[in-house]
Amino acid sequence: MGNVTLLVLDVLKPHTPNIIELAQKLTDLDAVDGVDITIFEIDSKVENAKVSLKGKNLDFQEIKRIIRESGGSVHSIDKVNAGSIEVKEVRTPQDGGANLHPFPS
């Protein structure tokens, strides 16, 4: 299996544990070198969070286990990088870049 180095997850989580505590639990995993968690929606019982993880050989099942044990669930895997080099996302006309066409109209 390929070396997963970046995961970006859409996570639904309760207010407790807070994102500091969840980040600490995730960074306790051996393969995780760094975690970024951003809350983008809050309601009375839950929060929607974007959870980004970097490391070497990230184990999605272990990451998902920590999130579940914290009362959360993974809604989707929104981005992944794997392999020995980091590949950056390339902007294309499908992304809404009207001026990306290489030839003038």
Overall, the morphology is globular
User: What is the level-2 CATH architecture name?
Assistant: 2-Layer Sandwich
Strand order of the largest sheet: 2-3-1-4
How large is the share of residues in beta strands? 35-45%
Helix run count: 2
Sequence of secondary-structure elements: EHEEHE
Helix content: 10-25%
What's the number of structural domains?
1
Q: Distance between the terminal alpha carbons, to the nearest Å? A: 45 Å
- Computed Rg: 17 Å
CATH class descriptor name:
Alpha Beta
In total, the number of strands is 4
User: From the helix content, strand content and strand pairing, which structural class follows?
Assistant: alpha+beta
Give me the CATH superfamily. Answer: MTH889-like domain
Uncertain residue segments: none
Label this structure with key terms.
105 residues; alpha+beta; Alpha-Beta Plaits; four-stranded antiparallel β-sheet; 2 helices; 4 strands; 18% helix; 40% strand
What is the element layout, followed by pairings?
Blueprint: E1 4-14, H1 19-27, E2 32-42, E3 46-55, H2 60-69, E4 73-82
Antiparallel strand pairs: 1-3, 1-4, 2-3
How does this structure look, described?
With 105 residues, the chain is α+β, with helices and mostly antiparallel strands. The chain is built from two helices and four strands, in the order E-H-E-E-H-E. The chain has a four-stranded antiparallel sheet, covered by helices on one side. A hairpin with a 3-residue loop joins strand 2 (32-42) and strand 3 (46-55). It is globular and about 40 Å long.
